[in-house]
Amino acid sequence: MAHDGAANAATAAPLLGSSTKSGKPRPNMYAFGCAALASMTTILMGYNLALMSGAQLFIREDLGLTDGEIEVLAGSINVFMLLSILAAGWAADVLGRRGTLVLANAFLMAGALAMSLGGSYAALMAARFVTSVGAGFSIVVTSVYNAEISPPAMRGLLSSFLDMFISTGLLLSYVSNYAFAGMPVHLGWRAMYAAGVLPPAFLATGVLAMPESPRWLAMRGRDADARAVLLRTSDTAAEADLRLEEIKHAVKEAQQVSDDGASVWKELLLRPPASVRRRLVFVVGLHFFQQASGIDSLVLYSPLVFRRAGMSSNDAVLGATIAWGVAKTFFILVASVFSDRLGRRPLLLASTAGVAVSMASLGVTLSVGTTSSLTAAASVASVMAFMAAFSIGFGPVAGSYGTEIMPLRLRAQGASLGMAVNRLTCGLVSMTFISLAGWITMPGCFFLYAGVASAACVFVYARLPETRGRSLEDMDVLFAK
Fold first, then answer.
1. Are 359 and 386 in contact (CB under 8 A)?
2. Between 161-180 and 314-342, two packed helices, what is the crossing angle to 10 degrees?
């Protein structure tokens, strides 16, 4: 059978033991710098995704778009991303992690330029599609690269960079909304998008300066190059050699599966071994719950929520979005610090419970019949509480957990599949929020999201094992149990 090798590898003891059994690890600044540089591309993704939150106020007036057109324009990028997300695994394996990130920056630059020049609804939809290609490549490949470049003891921290930098992009988009809001209507929203044209060129140059993933190098038979990178991301030469040996074992297993004629996608979807099937449930489940809990209803439509709560001026509304953007970014830093200390499970449990409570609180606040400064303040507080709870676990940990548990031969495609579910769910939320609010009311939407978050908390408690401190190759042992 094609999977006999996988089964045997799953029960074999890892060559490099869990770092939780050793003393306090030393931070590796080289790996830190590589992961930070790779993650910067996702700043642009976050910027382009969330800029519509404030820009829609002006696009609607300038181009005369309807509520339905705004809803589709805002959320369509998540559906468009499915194509590039599913292709990202293949691109990352063929072009390399670095080459795919350079390509992502090129699409993000072209998309920002097209948005700033768009003069019709059709032109803006086409621009959102171009942007979606770069966004899909960046979110998948960055998560894979960060997991593969990281030493086991720092993987929680470095993998959280993905959500941290996306949140930085969100925050910058809200600042841009506020900064350009005073310009003439037909120029302000264009300036917001034009500000995102040049940064991708500089980031693409920076990406070329970082090393390739050692696991990708080993997949290409470049063991000497892989060892050179591992020497710089390990504490000792002996540790680098042990990590390389584990990677070579994983590569050999992947080649055996390929030699038996089983493609990666067939193994992943049609006949996965039991350990892979369990991992797929965790990957898909986490990505689904992360988005179904309603994060994009606030990322894209918080101005509508704040107006519903009683805010009337654009300045107040955009200022409130900046406030929760700051809160979101700050609490991701908290998650980065504690992910490798407390573990993934405690953060996810606290996060899902906090999301459920804060969403219910927002629903109660918006259910009040009359609006006032008090209801406006309470709604802002509930949204900030949601962002804090989401950012300590659901945001940064869900993606990194899904990436680190997949075996090497399936990692890029597994990350693509998880992210496809993520974006499809996100698109469903973002493209139906206005319509759903008209059907079950806006408070009803947030009570629904609170119920989803409660289910996510049960899922994490009942199903997810802890992965803190384990090497990527050690995951086969964990999930064989």
1. yes
2. 170
User: What is the mean pLDDT of the segment spanning 338-354?
Assistant: 87
The model carries a pTM of 0.73
Query: Which two three-digit tokens encode residue 219?
Result: 């997949």
For residues 165 and 47, give the distance between their C-alpha atoms in angstroms, rounded to a whole number: 10
pLDDT tens-digit readout, 435-459: 899 999 999 999 999 999 999 999 9
How far apart (Å, rounded) are the C-alpha atoms in residues 137 and 204?
13
Q: Based on the number of CB atoms within 10 Å of its own CB, is 107 exposed (0-12), middle (13-18) or buried (19 or more)? A: buried
At a CB cut-off of 8 Å and minimum separation 6, what does 383 contact? 298, 302, 305, 320, 324, 358, 362
User: Of 82, 127, 104, 78, which is closest to residue 299 (Cα–Cα)?
Assistant: 78
Number of residues in the chain: 481
- DSSP-derived letter for residue 26 is P
| Nearest one of 182, 209, 199 to 46, comparing CA atoms | 199
Q: Where are the alpha helices (DSSP H) in 160-232?
A: 161-180, 185-194, 199-208, 214-219, 223-232
The identity of residue 132, as a single letter, is S
From the list 460, 343, 465, 455, the residue with the least C-alpha distance to 405 is: 465
Q: What is the DSSP letter of 17?
A: -
Distance (Å, whole) CA 148 – CA 213: 6
Poorest-confidence range of 160-174, 178-192, 405-419? 405-419
Residue 292 and residue 422: Cα distance in Å, rounded? Answer: 9
Distance CA 202, CA 219 (A): 29
